[in-house]
Amino acid sequence: MKTLLSAALIVAAATVSANAADMSMSYKAAPVAQSVYNWTGFYLGGTAGGGIANSEHLDRDSLNDGEVGDTKFQEGFGMVGLTAGYNYQFGHSVIGVEGDYNFSNVDKVQDVFNSVIPGSTTRFQMDQFATLRARAGIALDQTFIYATGGLAFAHIQNTTTFVSGGPFAQAQEDKWKTGLAIGAGVEFALTQNWSLKGEYVLMQFANSNAPVNEISIISNTCGNATPCRMNYSESVQLARIGVNYRFGY
Fold it and tell me: CB-side exposure of 172: number of CA atoms within 13 Å?
């Protein structure tokens, strides 16, 4: 009897051990959830870069004998600026709005092309510009690829001086011009709050006219054309990098 009881206890113990071994082998630890980067939030940042500023100074009617002076600029420049914006992410899509204010160093003087008055010059300056744009794109975790578009503003000074033994007539404008901005870029999250971006932006500004005012009466500046005026147009191609700090993660 004791022998049978002992055998039964041994069999029971072996069964419990086998079941415990099977349970330990079949159990798998639950996977650890991985955090996914989210681009939602307000941010501030700074940018630096450069580009090419284009300007055309067209003189249709202020030159004698019906000749046309068409002076074109293509000037490289550097820039630094500040940025502020907000992103909202839903799924893999991100939309947002961004504004920036920048300082640049565009300043170029050229002779008036095709002028019948040798020595006449025209000057193109742009020292500040800003944009207010929408951004929309795809978030691939810590990478955000986007297109952007909106309004552009630039502080532009154009001065054309006609010379014949001395300045005798001048057209000038000093104003903030409004235009359109479009572009594209990519932004990388370095940490939960800091990101690095690179982007290209094209800005096109509206044409403007400035009257040619006589400084001294030397000759008939406009010939038969009335009124005398210069036509100015500008566009800017910009490439820049920036660093943003996002709040509220």
Answer: 9
